[in-house]
Amino acid sequence: MDPVRNPYAPGAGQRPPELAGRDEQLEAFDVVLQRVARGRPERSLILTGLRGVGKTVLLNALRSAAVRRHWGTGKLEARPDQHLRRPLASALHQAVRELGHPRPDETDHVLGVIRAFAQREAGVGARLKDQWNPGIDAPAVRGRADSGDIEIDLVELLSDVGGLAADRGSGVAVFIDEMQDLGPDDVSALCAACHEISQSGLPLIVVGAGLPHLPAVLSASKSYSERLFRYQRIDRLPRAAADLALSVPAEDEEAAWSVDALAAMYAATGGYPYFIQAYGKAVWDRATTSPIDVADVGVAAPEAEAELAVGFFGSRYDRATPGERDYLRAMADVAAEAAAGGDQAGDRRSDDQPPDDSVLTSDVASSLGKKPQSLSPARDSLLKKGLIYSAERGRIAFTVPHFGRYLRENA
């Protein structure tokens, strides 16, 4: 097959040629946009899931939907070593520019509030060179969103931006990727601001995406966050959607997949969108004729697995210290033993039901022959690095699908 015409796109956050299996989320979000624009009450949205399930892709698709509705939009990616002020100021600056408010004085006032909010990061009396400027020409508005208390400032900031959108007869959507990496104070402030905006009925929503434990992070910050957001779990694709993700792009290039080849691809990828693209690209390049058959999948699978072992799995494994790697391997062994026990007991899951690879921290400690307390530093470090997560007390799981299998076969 012509590699130049290869339609598959295995990239971080890169939209696949066919966004299969996400129609429900897209349609629901379009309803949210219309309701908010009409002054109807709606909650902000939180997307959660493992790495490689397409959260960032879906986040970008939702943003595009908001742009088509003439909303102002901005996006940021949270980082554990960065406070919220500067990236949020940049995102809101872009959103205000997209709104295109007809009264420049109103726009300049809100831009001035955004600038004051951003510059408060440097602190009172900071030198000019240390005062970060988000590219806003309007002068900073003193006494608004610049108190230094992030919760007070964020409520004032989002209220002003939401008010500007209401005057325009439109809305503003702020998209936050890797939301679980926000600091505790920033999470608390964001929840409080969303709560205030919701009560005020202003047309501003936050759409966050993060790992499966993000709801627990929000709940630990503000108890009412369970009612403040609408949570959607983004998981692997069911068989029919996975087939579409492969077959539709192929048809656009006048090619096809055999039924047996599609079955083999689902078995290899588990329906995870990133794996579908990675395997799809490798198989296309190896196949000689159309339709692509099961033999082509067998030939190309080792190449796809080798690439994933280096770029997707290996890069994460390399970030762990020797002690942390021991912990990860023990997790993989315990999960495999639990799965084998479930299979023997006839407790196999259906193909469309996502696997639960979570394990007890006490079982990991037993596997290593150590006390759970002695392993706390390794576990906490892995949590901070985003290699594992804990959505339930006493249980942990990998943030990357198939990571346990990789560890058992390669590490």
From TrEMBL:
Residues 1-21, 339-377 are annotated as: Disordered. Keywords: ATP-binding, Heme, Iron, Metal-binding, Nucleotide-binding. Residues 166-332 form the Cytochrome c domain. PROSITE patterns: CYTC (PS51007). The keyword Cell membrane does not apply. This is ATP-binding protein. InterPro entries: AAA_16, Cyt_c-like_dom, P-loop_NTPase. One of its GO terms (molecular function) is ATP binding. The keyword Heme applies. Pfam families: AAA_16 (PF13191). It comes from Nocardioides bigeumensis.
